[in-house]
Amino acid sequence: MGFKDEIKRRRTFGIISHPDAGKTTLTEKLLLFGGAIQEAGAVKSNKIKKGATSDFMEIERQRGISVATSVLAFIYKDKKINILDTPGHKDFAEDTFRTLTAVDSVIVVIDVAKGVEEQTEKLVKVCRMRKIPIIVFINKLDREGKDAFDLLDEVEQKLGLKVTPLSFPIGMGYDFKGIYNIWEKNINLFEGDSRKNIEETIAFSDIESKELDTIVGEKAANRLREELELVYEIYPDFDREAYLKGDLQPVFFGSALNNFGVRELLDCFIEIAPTPRPKDSDTRLVNPDEDVFSGFVFKIHANMDPKHRDRIAFVKIVSGTFEKNKPYLHVRQGKKMKFSSPNAFFAEKKEIVDISYAGDIVGLHDTGNFKIGDTLTEGEGMNFKGIPSFSPEHFRYINNADPLKSKQLEKGIDQLMDEGVAQLFTLEMNGRKVIGTVGALQYEVIQYRLEHEYGAKCTYENFPAYKACWVKPKDSKNEEFAEFKRVKQKFLGHDKYGQLVFLADSEFSIQMTQQKYPSVELFFTSDFRIT
Ligand code: G4P
After folding, report:
1. What pLDDT does 200 receive?
2. Among 18, 24, 25, residue to substitute to test ligand 1 (most atoms within 8 Å of Cβ)
3. Residue bearing the CA closest to ligand 1, atom 19
4. Taking every annotated instance into account, which residue ranges of this chain make up the domain Tr-type G (predicted)?
5. One fold for 279-377 and 394-523
């Protein structure tokens, strides 16, 4: 198979959801279809158990699992499917945001009873901003839940999507009879048995046929007919172009736990989901089927063994092929590097491979050369765009608690920031360091890892900030900018790239600043830096 055909058969995506909606269960069922695992229960949940925020064993366990499940790959109907893991826990949301820069599409899982939840809203917002194609899977149909139409409304309202159902439930919960597959025009009857033969679907192109009454009962059959009529009336026909542009989102219903509606989802997914997509760089748009290799680092994971400080950098291949022992340019450092043991990922294991293709993820052993967002090429001096830092939501001063270990502390902080565990801001006024995180849990992770991996100790002190706003003056020499810097002196710092940041203490303060200094632009992600 030529390398262009290899690329065309790749589907790289992420599953996102609010915790407990069924992401792990769905992932596992998808892997079962690919024959990548043999039994249910093989995919370990990477959830942090409730109430375990102070349990360091739990944090370590989570880190271990997230290396193992960072990329789960399998072959299904000759397509190479790469599922990128996205942590559901909100304290690790930044990790998920970054992973979304490496996916070509996503599946959003929603719990039929709970509807659209907070974490789903946040993640879908990022997908919408990036025009990532989205398929919605409404899960747990074996339980009582919201009415299908109400739920579709909620998805449109809360997530700002334009949906079109490609399947529709026949009843729900106790009365759940099965699913009418609008896409394939067939019916899948629910038997509540996860070992059910997956081929057992009944083709049904004419739902007016009396046979439907015999199969699901007259009442359910009539209701389905009425509901489908409404579906065809209210929702637009599926249009692949609109889906690929992020303008239309197909919806499937099912029950991951019962392996119900999953095969239908997967079969449709491999047909409609995008092959590896082109990606923008600071100089040009890069197409996957270009002959030369390019890729970028979207995730860095520290080795679990504290004695060896090497890490794994996860690289999404944007174009061409990545080959073992071939020299590639690390653009930011301007140096050529070779990799003798690039890892590729299959289901739950990783293996050293000679060649990987655009769309794939390779794991490279790293001794501290990479930062998140770094670009690798065959020599071209370009940088991929769009791996932003989002404003943290918690801010604390970090203090050295062991003066003899200040070097270790500095190195530790530096490396943990490169990994993207948190963001560091250095205050302009006095050089003090402030750590910003998405969740409070990160402070414990940092303290624990500094001590165990770097032998350094730290303490924290509250820093009264509410949001980090990246600052870009329209004119850095004008009086307004000089006054802004004078007045806000105490709240100004620099991020790790030296970019000026305003650490605002309230929404009010942000609004006042915007009114008073209109020529000083404030940004809530660092995206503008690279766009
Ligand atoms: P997550 O990764 O999105 O956080 O969710 P996960 O798959 O772990 O699922 C959360 C809970 O929901 C699990 O139950 C799981 O068994 C259940 N679940 C998933 N899909 C379905 C479904 O289609 N129907 C029903 N009824 N339940 C479903 P748990 O009790 O929290 O965990 P476990 O002890 O079963 O592992």
Report:
1. 58
2. 25
3. 22
4. 8-277
5. no
